[in-house]
Amino acid sequence: xxKSTHILIVGGGTAGWLSAAFxxxxxxxxxxxxxxxxxxxxxxxxxxxxxEGSFPSIRGTLAAIGISEARFIRECNxxxxxxxxxxxxxxxxTEPASTTKNHYFHPFSQPSQRAGSPELLPYWLHGLAGKDRxxxxxxxxxxxxxxxxxxxxxxxxxxxLGPMNYAYHFDAARFATLLAEHARSLGVxxxxxxxxxVELAESGAIASIHSKxxxxxxxxxxxxxxxFRARLIGxxxxxxxHSVSDTLFVDRALAIQVPYPQADSPIPSYTISTAQEAGWxxxxxxxxxxxxxxxxxxxxxxxxxxxxxxxxxxxRSMDHLQARSLQLELGYRPIQWIHNCVAIGLSGGFLEPLxxxxxxxxxxxxxxxxxxxxxxxxxxxVAKTFNHLMSQRYERIVDFIKLHYCLSQRTDxxxxxDNTAAESIPASLRDKLNMWQGRPPSRLDFITDLEMYPPSxxxxxxxxxxxATQLPTNLIRKDELAAAQEAFxxxxxxxxxxxxxxxxxxxxxxxxxxxx
Length: 516
Ligand code: FAD
Prior knowledge:
InterPro entries: FAD/NAD-bd_sf (IPR036188), Flavin-dep_Halogenase_NPB (IPR050816), Flavin_halogenase (IPR006905), Trp_halogen (IPR033856). It is built from 16 helices and 21 strands. With about 525 residues, it is of the alpha+beta class. The strands form five sheets. The chain has a seven-stranded mixed beta sheet with strand order 5-4-14-15-16-13-17. A six-stranded mixed beta sheet has the order 7-2-1-11-20-19. A hairpin with a 2-residue loop joins strand 19 and strand 20 (about 340-345). Helix 1 runs parallel beside helix 7. Flavin-adenine dinucleotide binds near residues 13, 42, 231 and 253. Flavin-adenine dinucleotide binds near residues 10 and 51.
């Protein structure tokens, strides 16, 4: 018989409410009331409130929990995200960042591959697409369409579907509010209270938690979503934190919200990430404002220098706006599930905002808790599987993020020079780069279930960063040359039609916002 289980989530940020909604949707059914889900959040401690960029997996999550695309866009001030434009990451800027030379694009759409036609990467490396055509530009229409200000889908396309792959930019505080409302409608009990004590049983498991407002609270499974505080998994259970600061150097963020010059200013449908002397700046266009932040290394810049860099980017006319400062500790807990407590969100780990892994990791963790759920009360084997899958995923994300830094040819500051030092590059990444000098990355280099980023993301960043692969001659087949050439030509032709077919980005946002 199924054991009755009370799941108690502590924390009401994106991690807490996304987990609550996902678990409620997947575990609570009208004919099974053996599972109860509650969420307690502090009325005093706010949520982190940053985290405005997402990964395409978010569409599947929103669909799974039952929030429509129009509601999400309307209520979260959301816009579409087709990828990331990286400026000044490869070379030291000598000219304004608007020149195409110092840009590359990481699109979310996979390289185009029609049935029966060859994989295009070897042929691009062979020079068949044209000497100056960047990889991302040659193998998919997405960069061109995003540059033209087009949205990734039409208003007639179904929810969460479109010709181009996409994610969103959104207001993090509004997202938490929407998720909270939705989770409550799915049957999650909501409590306001500050957890001030955690009582442990002899076994080391959590026996109860305590708050002044509600006294003692008992549950079978506790989900720690208390953010960087890690009140349960860290403070109470002492799960150790594995710092990755020797590999990823940024440890501070300075964030600012900037209004558009006009209500109808165009909104880029991609994050702009511009490398700076000691880190990089994110620039995210929401409906009514931009979210901008400088993520930097305090070992390579002091706070005053960082503020100058951010204000130079934002422009003097915005000198009156306040910037918010945040301290970051990059790393993760290799053990995120101990006995009857599992960490989701920042309490489990954080690997900097580049490539938006934070919310993606929350989605994965909530998915795993739901699908590995210990219905029979046997937590230990589930914990073991969860810890293995999550720590492997974190390790691979560290490699992927470091890839952006360690291939840079910038030598202008200590930050960039230190980032290419061999000892700062994990051995697992060095091995991959060694292999890829002699052949391009293959699907077999990646174990899909452990990766957040698909092989194409690695390829876009690798070749965007001007990585050199010595192409083995056997990868170019004479009988496929014509088909590959035709495919490159086809992409160049079809994108003109697609640019006419797809709506302007802001127009599509306005369409969704007008829906009741
Ligand atoms: P929080 O938002 O901090 O929520 C913690 C919750 O716990 C709050 O409700 C608080 O009240 C509650 N709480 C704490 N202590 C107690 C207690 N004792 N009792 C009761 N309740 C308690 N991710 C992305 O995917 N994309 C991005 O672009 C991105 N950018 C980022 C930029 C920066 C600078 C930072 C720092 C993070 C970024 N992230 C990003 C990560 C993302 O913000 C987080 O993963 C996400 O917001 C989840 O946060 P959380 O819910 O774990 O924590």
